[in-house]
Amino acid sequence: MKRCKKCGELKPENADYFNKLSSGNYRGTCKKCMAENTKKHYNQNPQKVMDRVSKYKEQKELAGGYTSDFEKAKIRKDQEDLCAYCGIDLNGEGELDHRIPVSRGGNNSPGNMAWTCLTCNRDKHNKTVDEFMLWRKTRGFVS
């Protein structure tokens, strides 16, 4: 069990409640409080957020390639509706991830896309697949 530094609640010390740091230790602040902090930042800095979103959309447009709804469904079927990184059942949900991030030269074509769970997609950020899988391994998420 771990006590969140922000809300003071005692929660199980695992990936459901706390994110891991690069050291492999869990953060001192729980995921719920982190989300509230992010929302607060968005509300206090709307122009900064809009600028970042605009930059990302521009990068995606410049990246080229396109994945149709048919191709998205095929990717999901090929992955057996499992997260490409952790293997949990997506139950028809999840997010499309750029295996090679757009910010690192990736494109929007089907060969660069994978269905992922929300947690993996958020944790991956702009890492490549190899970097992300190593990141997961060093934090004990995979053996």
CATH architecture of the domain at 65-143: 2-Layer Sandwich
Q: How much is the radius of gyration in Å? A: 17 Å
First and last CA, distance: 23 Å
Summed over residues and divided by their number, the pLDDT gives a mean of 92
Largest sheet: 2 strands, antiparallel
Give helix and strand order, one letter per element, not per position. EEHHHEEHH
Number of strands: 4
The CATH topology of the domain at 65-143 comes to Herpes Virus-1
Query: In DSSP terms, counting alpha (H) and pi (I) runs of 4 or more, how many helices?
Result: 5
Low-confidence parts, pLDDT < 50 over ≥5 residues? none
Instruction: Assign the CATH class of the domain at 65-143.
Output: Alpha Beta
Approximate helicity band: 40-55%
The outline comes out as: globular
| Major beta sheet, strand line-up | 1-2
Structural class: mainly alpha
- Strand composition percent: 5-15%
